[in-house]
Amino acid sequence: MKIQIALDLTDLLKAVHMARDLCAAGADLLEAGTPLIKTFGVGSVALLKSACPSAEVVADLKTADVGALEAELAKAAGADWATVMAATNVETIEEFARRGKELGLKTALDTIGVASPYDRVREVLDRVTLDMVILHLGIDVQRRRGLTVDQLIAEALRIKHLGVSVAVAGGIGQKELEKIAGTEIDVVIIGRAITSAPSPREAFLLLKSIITK
């Protein structure tokens, strides 16, 4: 299990300094969050990669159209991973994954906004080979539907049993991570619990200790 640190920031200098500090603490997955990319473009991916060359960098593009082009943009910027929306048409997902594979870019399917993630992932996997699926439920959705962390884990593992690696995202902090640790989930995506902490480095080290016990 790995922690992917979502740098959902709009301050580029802060993001680069944080990436460098987290890299020194042993971070191996850094995400150029959608707000960062929308504010500063895909060039922000290259800056994070330069700040932490030992980590894999995820370009959270949330691609919804022109899949092949966006895969090319992510790879050209130095990304190791990029994301495509499960809610978009399957042709875009196919083009994104196909071009990503040609370029050596790993592709992750983000299920945010999808009413039935398991059914949609199963449908997509019938046509597309992906490297990972992100079970991504916003905090508002979790609260409105009364979903528990245990239910989130169970749904992620159902998806994993379709034969694909899985990540979970959505308001995860120490309490949630303690339940996720030790399961077959491959990646836990954590943003504010690290980036908004007084010391992001110390917050990351604490959370990492939970999954490495």
What's the topology here?
Blueprint: E1 2-7, H1 12-24, E2 29-32, H2 34-40, H3 43-51, E3 56-63, H4 67-76, E4 81-85, H5 90-103, E5 106-110, H6 117-125, E6 132-136, H7 139-145, H8 149-160, E7 165-169, H9 174-180, E8 187-190, H10 192-195, H11 200-211
Parallel strand pairs: 1-2, 1-8, 2-3, 3-4, 4-5, 5-6, 6-7, 7-8
Helix pairs in contact: 1-3, 4-5, 6-8, 9-11
Can you characterise this structure?
- The structure is a single chain.
- The chain has an 8-stranded parallel β-barrel, surrounded by 6 helices.
- The chain has a single domain, classed as Aldolase class I (TIM Barrel, Alpha-Beta Barrel).
- 49% of the residues lie in helices and 20% in strands.
- Helix 4 runs parallel beside helix 5.
- Helix 6 (117-125) links the parallel strand 5 and strand 6 (132-136).
- The chain is of the alpha/beta class and 213 residues long.
- The protein is built from 11 helices and 8 strands.
- It starts with a strand and ends with a helix.
- The radius of gyration is 16 Å and the shape is globular.
Summarize this structure as a short list of keywords or feature phrases:
single chain; about 210 residues; alpha/beta; TIM Barrel; eight-stranded parallel barrel; Aldolase_TIM; 3-dehydro-L-gulonate-6-phosphate decarboxylase activity
